[in-house]
What we know:
Elements: E1 2-9, H1 13-25, E2 31-35, E3 40-41, E4 60-61, H2 64-68, E5 72-75, E6 78-82, E7 87-90, E8 95-102, E9 106-108, E10 121-122, H3 128-140, E11 143-147, H4 151-163, E12 167-171, H5 184-196, E13 200-202, E14 207-211, E15 216-220, E16 225-228, E17 230-233, E18 237-239, H6 242-246, E19 270-272, E20 279-280, E21 287-288, H7 293-305, E22 320-325, E23 328-334, H8 337-342, E24 347-355, E25 367-375, E26 381-388, H9 392-404, H10 409-413, H11 431-445
Parallel strand pairs: 1-2, 1-8, 2-5, 8-19, 10-17, 11-12, 11-17, 12-13
Antiparallel strand pairs: 3-4, 6-7, 7-8, 9-18, 14-15, 15-16, 20-21, 22-23, 23-26, 24-25, 25-26
Helix pairs in contact: 1-7
Amino acid sequence: MREADVVVVGGSAAGLTAAITARRHYPQKKALVVRSEEKVLIPCGIPYIYGTVGSPDKNLIPDAALEKNEIELLKTTATGIDRENKVLKTEAGDVKYDRLIVATGSKPVVPPVPGMDKPGIFTIKKEIPYLTELQKKLADAKDVVIIGGGFIGIEFADEINKIGGKNVTVVELQQHCLSLAYDDEFCAEMEKNVAERGVNISCSAKVSEIKGDGPFTVVIEGGSEITAEVVILGIGAKANTDIAVSAGLEIGPTGGIAVDRAMKTSDDNIFACGDCAEKVSFFGGKPSRLKLASIATLEARIAGANLFGLRRESPGTVGAWSTAVGGLAMGTAGLTEASAKAQGYEVVTAAAEGPNRHPGCMPDAVVTKVKLVFEKGSGVLLGGQVRGDASCGEVVNEISAFVQRKMTAEDIAMFQSGTHPALTASPIAYALVNAAEMAAGKMRSA
């Protein structure tokens, strides 16, 4: 029987990070990663396979990190957990563990709509052969329909459109694409940008049926129809908890493996992290359905550090993300104005914009907009959104740090930043600080 002090099931973002963290905190312990994939895809890079990158084999997490950290790798499928004897069952034989980390990720959601399960209708599986088959189908297709206008849907649509010769349509149930990620004014900007790049956007549209066996007819509630040779479902993911359920581990209210703030499951010797694990929000501690690679790796760093003694606790899920299509990038950290109000917060918001270089005529200068959302009574930052170019990604990370430290509008207005004409906005027109100053002024005059 194979043995390791730490056994990790799953080798993607959470599993790899958990194993590395375990080795860093407990270098005397032997670690083993068990995964079914020959190669592991970068999850967030999957849409770019079809345009920018060009192939699934160019979108991989390298195994070099395992070798560098002296982590063993077993490529096989885990089939069960014998909790009493602390044994992981696999198709390649039993593996004895002292501590087990479950990082089995998520599976695509397929809604109960007639025709959604037909062969030739693709979900976003993290499997190279599956995505390679999708690439082959797209090569010969002219009409493509993507159901779901979230991150995956919008990014897939633009990347497929880049191939050329395609008629790409995004069908979104909500009033706006990306409506769960941004406030309406940001959503409208991205929709306009995507449409100008040649993608058809159909919002407030509910798919009632998919007819045919290829080409397909996507039927929209109310009677309209869209023809498609390829249909892609990008409407979300659910926790992959099969092995946890069969082992009798407790499952949480959103369907993930129940964990405490140390990422420990209902079994003291088993931890879980990433998309398969239950999450609670940073804001009020209610269950959260967010599934992001950044959250997965945070949870993995917590789980890996706590295996043989409590060293870290999860503060709850803040949520920080970005989207980029062409030259337009947008990001959110924490709560949007709409989501804050939906949770019952009384808010004060302020937005500021200006060029991200100074003077504004500097090469590559882009007008950046920052919108911040504060809790009215305390002045504490709840979240923020950014629109601009690629630099938005790091501004969003700044906002996430401010949220986690529960900084107020006054704190952010006093933020000491470094500036340079070729790198940042002017210190006079620094949008992040100016938005906070404006919000502080609103609260003083309220």
